[in-house]
Each structure stands twice: as structure tokens, then as C-alpha cells.
Specification:
about 90 residues; mainly beta; five-stranded antiparallel beta sheet
């Protein structure tokens, strides 16, 4: 399976996600959304940057996924302004 995965260039969404944390990223028109689900029942700190949508709190470096819970982080794309979410003209 390792050979097939490598040939297909399949990579985890977050290679640094702790065991028991499911990570899924979806892309929207203006941002990416990182969905984190704790299947372990222990909770975890997961690397992320953006805004956690369930709490509305800014996320800098990591987000707490509660035990048995979820976190949804709206990630600012690298070529967008964190304040406006608009794409910088030079990056178009």
C-alpha cells in the first residue's frame, strides 16, 4: 500500500495531526476550511492558523480540539490579507 500511495502522491491533510484526530480541508471561494474531529475522546492541540468558526476566536499556531468534539478553522490563504480576506493585487 505504501508504494501505491506514493505513486498516487496521496498525502495526509495534516501530517502533524495527533493520532485520533481526523483532518479534512475544503476550499471555498475566499478561504480554506480545516475540519478537525476528535475520535480518540482525549482532545488535542492541532497546528492551525485562522479563525475557529465555532467560537469565533482567532487561531495563531494551534487550535484546541475538545475531547470527542470538533473544531472548524477558516484559514486565510497565503496571498490574502488577514484583515479583509481579499487577494492582494500583486498576487493575481
Amino acid at each position: 500500500m505504501d508504494r501505491i500511495r506514493d505513486e498516487a502522491d496521496v498525502r495526509p491533510v495534516l501530517a502533524t495531526a495527533p493520532n485520533g484526530i481526523e483532518a479534512v480541508r475544503r476550499s471555498g471561494a475566499d478561504a480554506d476550511y480545516l475540519f478537525l474531529i476528535d475520535h480518540s475522546g482525549a482532545g488535542a492541540e492541532v497546528p492551525a492558523d485562522g479563525v475557529e468558526l465555532l467560537t469565533g476566536k482567532p487561531v495563531h499556531g494551534s487550535v484546541t480540539v475538545p475531547a470527542g468534539g470538533v473544531a472548524v478553522v477558516r484559514e486565510t490563504r497565503r496571498n490574502q490579507s488577514p484583515q479583509t480576506g481579499r487577494i492582494h493585487p500583486r498576487s493575481r
